[in-house]
Amino acid sequence: MMTVDAIVNDYKAMIDSQLATLFDQVTMNLKIKEAMAYSLNVGGKRVRPLLMLLTAEAFGTSTEKVMPVCLALECVHTYSLIHDDLPAMDDDDYRRGQLTNHKKFDEATAILAGDALLTYGFQLISEAELLTDEEKVHAMKRLSQVSGPGGMVGGQMYDLTYENKTISLEQLEEVHDLKTGQLLIYALEMGAYLSGQSDHVIQALKRAAKAIGLTFQIQDDILDVIGDEQVLGKKVGSDELNEKSTYPKLLGLSGAKNEKNIFVEETKKQLALAGIMDAPLRDYVLKLSQREH
Amino acid sequence: MMTVDAIVNDYKAMIDSQLATLFDQVTMNLKIKEAMAYSLNVGGKRVRPLLMLLTAEAFGTSTEKVMPVCLALECVHTYSLIHDDLPAMDDDDYRRGQLTNHKKFDEATAILAGDALLTYGFQLISEAELLTDEEKVHAMKRLSQVSGPGGMVGGQMYDLTYENKTISLEQLEEVHDLKTGQLLIYALEMGAYLSGQSDHVIQALKRAAKAIGLTFQIQDDILDVIGDEQVLGKKVGSDELNEKSTYPKLLGLSGAKNEKNIFVEETKKQLALAGIMDAPLRDYVLKLSQREH
């Protein structure tokens, strides 16, 4: 039997290779193609598409059916990173050790590449061959809801509004839920929906995904306090420096660790409610929540 | 019988009122809502939704059915204007006599408001009550194709690439087709598609829309040379100043006028092929091609 790591690595290799050739057969302006492909292929853990594939796998659904929606989700995630890195936003020169899109190209190109990736996400779903019209409509409706003004973009707006302000734990959770949680919810939700699962199962997985998102976030916050710069590959202490509201800041380090454990337990509980007890999905999620980089 | 002007004014009032209340019942971050609504309601001729409604009207299709797609198209058009005006792009402080989005708010907000409007366009179609799943999928597929990297965004990229360069008439036409033509094509195409028209009719209307787009563009270029600043409400001669490639520059003023007339004749011919001889759509289009502002 394959180990979870081997399964995850196999799926990740599939996702990477699909993303690497995504625009090969598509006619478009060469510069926009280059800029889109650059950020899409600069690396990354591919957490979102992996979560969707692993959820589909837990219900015996083929990778081929789900893949276009996975790729669409990664396009939307990547667009959000490109725009987030812009000088007017977080003003980052590097991401994952590589130049950010506007540094590699220029600001105008980065704005357009982000716009193009967002739009192309919808195109991928609308052109998917193995989905019914009903499935396509639902996948695009939910994608617009989780990524638009009522989802991720709304979260980024809250994030800007709250900059350098002291916020409550409730507000912190709302920002994280919108900014990063909603796309994670989409990953598990779609894996189950495209597998024809009941609303009961889908709702449990959405609650699991919400807990997973908060677990990841608290882990991120904790690593920024106690992480090893060598292992992380980035400077620690930047949250403190930027006066960012974080879980350790609001709850203390041990309070944050407790809070994380609560969400890990919630994740296990909701996955079990969805009938997922020993699938690779569960192992992958639990492993990520213990990661050190 | 109502005059064409009265019909168009009625439709425009409907579109304006729908856009003015578009987010009233929607839960989202208040600042992103304000920024989206600002640019959506700053005015404008509403050419794209009007063309779609008038096309639907020519085939006897209800306004109610087509309206969500009209509003989606205006959202996408508005997002493109917001991003186009950004400092990294055209760097415009005013549009239609009002502050541009990043001047009224700030750059980060304008980037997010554009992102949100683009995404919301897809949400509007996916949530439309009077469309079948098949119609929604086709409307979203075409919207992504005409506005994404193979359409409008690709055109903007060409536009940046060609800045301060001498280009051929062929290249000029390709830029205009992608940058502005594709959304106009979408307007007429969807008006006919949602009316259940044959592919023969839809193709004729797409050719008509392409000719309409080029007619408008040449008219724009001509007005920038010979227009009356008082009537236009903006400075003339800016194309010359910015060394932009235009029809008068490539063909001379009378050559440009001739070219425009060729496209007006093409428009009439294609509308006739689609069975549209004396509908308000035809009068509206021909009137716009003679406009002085």
CATH topology of chain A: Farnesyl Diphosphate Synthase
> In percent, how much strand structure appears in the residues of chain A?
under 5%
Q: What is the helix tally of chain A?
A: 15
Sheet having the most strands of chain A: 2 strands, antiparallel
User: Helicity of chain A, in percent?
Assistant: over 70%
Number of strand segments of chain A: 2
Strand order of the largest sheet of chain A: 1-2
Any key phrases for this structure?
71% helix; 2 strands; 293 residues; homodimer; 15 helices; Farnesyl Diphosphate Synthase; globular; two-stranded antiparallel sheet
Describe the structure.
The structure is a homodimer of 293-residue chains. With 293 residues, chain A is an all-alpha fold. Chain A is 71% helix and 1% strand. The first copy, chain A, has a single domain (4-288), classed as Farnesyl Diphosphate Synthase. Chain A has 15 helices and 2 strands. In chain A, strands 1-2 form a two-stranded antiparallel sheet. In chain A, α3 (47-58) crosses α9. Chains A and B meet through α2, α6, α7 and α8 of A and α2, α6, α7 and α8 of B.
